[in-house]
Every structure is written in C-alpha cells, then in structure tokens.
Specification:
Blueprint: H1 2-19, H2 36-48, H3 50-54, H4 66-73, H5 79-99, H6 116-140
Helix pairs in contact: 1-5, 1-6, 2-4, 2-5, 2-6
C-alpha cells in the first residue's frame, strides 16, 4: 500500500512538473517561499534521501552529506534539469523500495528508529502535502491540473 501510494504521488507530481511551462519554474508565491523549481527539487531530494531511509535504505552512493546536498539540489532551476533529477531520484527510490526486505523491517529499525507503518505514514503524508502545494502553484500560474476533467 505504501509503494502504491508513492507511485500515485509520483505520477501526479511528474504530471504537474511536465505541465508547468519552463518560464513559470521561477515563480514563487511570495518572497522567501520556494519557487516551483525549488519545491520540485525538494521533492527530488526526498526521493533521493528520505524515501529510501523510510525502508532502511540509503541515498545514492554519490549523494554526499544530506545537509549539504539537499539545499544544493534546490539550486537546480531549469525545467529540463529538474525533470531529469525528479526521474533520477524516483528511479533510486523505486529500486530501494523494490529491494527492501519486509521481513527485516520489524519493530523500530534504522536509520530513524521508527516502525514501518510510522515511516510509511510520515513519508506518504509529507509527499502528499507537497503534491497539494504543487497543485496550488500550478493553479497560481494558470496550469490546469493534468488529471482533472
């Protein structure tokens, strides 16, 4: 169920990322708030780091120190680069999720000391919140929700 929810969120975030015109990627709702590109790159950072961690996995070997790498990712601003990073980060998440051995994810496990249901609920909720924020961004720049009728 967790992987299925993440798949659904991924499909919708990618649909929005593709639907938003490149010239709107720098739009931000207010000063001091993430731009569309920064917000999408924040999602990519979570797919690189937090989703794997939610099942006891690791970020890619070349990810570096999360506290340094995650803000650096948000400096990627062009639509093509953002989409490439979203695809790369999602591929990593999917591979880690597919390789996770559910029989080892009992009790509270590393790295967070949470149970699987706590990790899944936390990550799913967080990514769905980001999806909601991206929907608001899309509507603010006059992009129709791709899956709306």
């Amino acid at each position: 169920e967790y992987a299925a929810d993440l798949d659904t969120v991924h499909v919708k975030i990618m649909a929005l990322a593709n639907a938003i015109p490149a010239d709107k990627y720098s739009w931000r709702p207010a000063a001091g708030v993430r731009s569309i590109s920064e917000a999408l790159m924040h999602v990519a950072a979570e797919w690189f780091y937090y989703v794997p961690g939610s099942v006891g996995g690791k970020p890619p070997a070349d990810f570096g120190v999360p506290r340094e790498t995650m803000p650096t990712l948000e400096k990627i601003t062009t639509k093509a680069e953002v989409l490439a990073q979203l695809n790369k980060s999602w591929a990593h998440s999917k591979a880690v999720l597919a390789a996770a051995d559910a029989s080892t994810l009992t009790g509270k496990y590393e790295p967070w000391g949470l149970t699987l249901d706590q990790s899944a609920f936390s990550m799913s909720g967080d990514l769905n919140a980001h999806l909601g924020q991206r929907l608001t961004d899309a509507r603010s720049v006059e992009v129709k929700t791709p899956w709306a009728r």
